[in-house]
Write a structure and sequence with these properties.
single chain, alpha/beta, D-Maltodextrin-Binding Protein, domain 2, 2 domains, 6-stranded mixed β-sheet, 5-stranded mixed β-sheet, 11 strands, globular
Length: 396
């Protein structure tokens, strides 16, 4: 198998950098991978994976029990697209990892640059049962009738808030994004993403309200993203935002230190601070949600290794029932095979409250996806324009 899109093709550094990196400003970030230089190949029976922190379980004992493999997981902020491309294109992540997790959509330019191995889905017994709406979602499908990336889980995001402090109802009663972006009661007490997703949220708000002509808020033109940035800058200068966060830990800290009463954040951050005694809820919105997906691919370098069967075994586990069930409880996310997740929870004899939580997760996401279909993929076509406007927003 030596097709350029498959295992045998090894792009040169110059060829790779000439595509994605040119003009995008994606190569400015240093490596974020800790632990120093590692051998390219892990020990036999070990899977090395780089991905977002919410992909990981609290421990990997279930993975190890069910696959017979050991997981060596390296967390990475996958929402920072420039840093991720830098890690793959410049720092050679594919030489060091068997699997790479990204925000779905980010992998598409990497497919075009021959950094992703085409998947043989016949080797994944759980893949066929993934709904076509998931497998062919706009952020996952590369449009070539081939499979490059496995969907791990998806969600419809909103924001966390203190209902008692703000005098607001709890879910499932719907709120609007004005609570975060345009409300006198939250001036100086709200927080939002410190990366390009903030611009996309601004674009969604303007489009939803009919305040600007914006085609796809997740893939704006240079003019559209400037309009979105202008709106966010106006709100920032009005004193709306207490902070712009970059990491999951910052989201949690913003709630725990009392600096914000409403925050655009990941749902697991709300789950964590609730577990620590904070009266925080994750909003159901009546205007729109941010639809997203996490996916995982095999770097082209890994497909040539002698542990490729182990890599496929790991991939199949991620789209199986135990992972879907565990993630529903731990993060509130919906796995690509929630039918298997629910079956696993019931067959494993989980307590009724946990089984009910898995069922509620399925209903919750189905309800949220009834809103306008605003998918985000993290990698707009004009990444340079988004980066420039994000810098303008940060510095305003």
């Amino acid at each position: 198998m030596k097709d350029k899109n498959k295992a045998g093709f090894r792009p040169t550094r110059r060829r790779v950098l000439s595509g994605i990196a040119a003009g995008a400003g994606a190569l400015a970030a240093p490596s974020l991978i800790l632990g120093g230089i590692r051998p390219a190949k892990a020990a036999s029976g070990t899977i090395r994976m780089m991905g977002g922190p919410t992909v990981a379980l609290e421990d990997w004992s279930l993975f190890e029990k069910e696959t017979g493999l050991t997981m060596e997981f390296t967390p990475f902020n996958v929402d920072d697209v420039g840093a991720l491309y830098n890690e793959i294109l410049v720092n050679g992540a594919g030489d060091r990892f068997d699997l790479i997790n990204t925000l779905a959509g980010v992998q598409k330019p990497l497919v075009q640059q021959d950094q992703v191995a085409q998947l043989d889905t016949a080797r994944l017994k759980n893949y066929a049962g993934i709904p076509d709406t998931v497998k062919r979602s706009p952020v996952l499908y590369a449009g070539d009738d081939k499979d490059w990336s496995v969907p791990l889980y998806y969600n419809a995001d909103s924001f966390g808030y203190y209902p008692e402090k703000l005098g607001l109802p709890r879910p499932p009663e719907a709120l609007t994004w004005d609570v975060l972006l345009n409300d006198e009661a939250t001036l100086g007490k709200s927080a939002i993403d410190g990366d390009n997703i903030a611009l996309m949220i601004g674009g969604m708000y303007l489009k939803n309200r009919g305040l600007a002509e914006i085609g796809d808020p997740a893939n704006m033109t240079a003019s559209e993203v400037e309009t979105a940035a202008n709106f966010l800058i106006e709100r920032k200068q009005a004193g709306q935002f207490r902070s712009l966060w970059k990491t999951y830990d910052e989201q949690v800290a913003n709630f725990m230190n009392g600096e914000v009463v409403v925050q655009r954040c990941w749902e697991p951050a709300v789950k964590q601070v609730k577990a620590e005694g904070q009266d925080v809820e994750y909003a159901t919105c009546g205007d729109f949600h941010i639809n997203w997906m996490h996916s995982t691919f095999m770097p082209v370098q890994a497909a040539d290794r002698d542990n490729v069967e182990e890599i496929y075994k790991a991939l199949d586990w991620f789209i199986g029932g135990s992972y879907a069930a565990e993630l529903a409880i731990l993060r509130g996310y919906t796995g690509s095979r929630m039918d298997l997740g629910l079956a696993y929870a019931e067959e494993a004899g989980w307590s009724q409250d946990k089984v009910d939580a898995v069922k509620a997760n399925i209903v919750k996401v189905e309800t949220k996806f009834l809103n306008p279909n605003y998918w985000i993929g993290g990698a707009p076509d004009d990444l340079a324009a988004h980066d420039a406007q994000m810098a303008r927003f940060r510095n305003a």
